[in-house]
Amino acid sequence: MNKDQVKGTAEKMKGKVNEAVGRATDNPARELKGDLQQEAGQARKNVGDMKEAAKDMAKDVKRHH
């Protein structure tokens, strides 16, 4: 797991909390902030996932040569 995956997952979790608190307190701005945080977190996690996949592919190529 790389730093983008970790930070992306953490951001998604913060977003879930903000969304839940926003709903519970009838605060649409906080709920929206949570939604946006989750999307940003997922995007960062996706970047990390792609980096890991590329690293794994590079290892496979080295093993086969």
Automatic annotation (TrEMBL):
It comes from Paraburkholderia acidiphila. It holds the Pfam family CsbD. Signal peptide: none annotated. Residues 1-17, 46-65 have a biased composition (Basic and acidic residues). Residues 4-56 form the CsbD-like domain. Belongs to the UPF0337 (CsbD) family. Residues 1-65 are annotated as: Disordered. This is CsbD family protein. It comes from the Bacteria. InterPro entries: CsbD, YjbJ_sf.
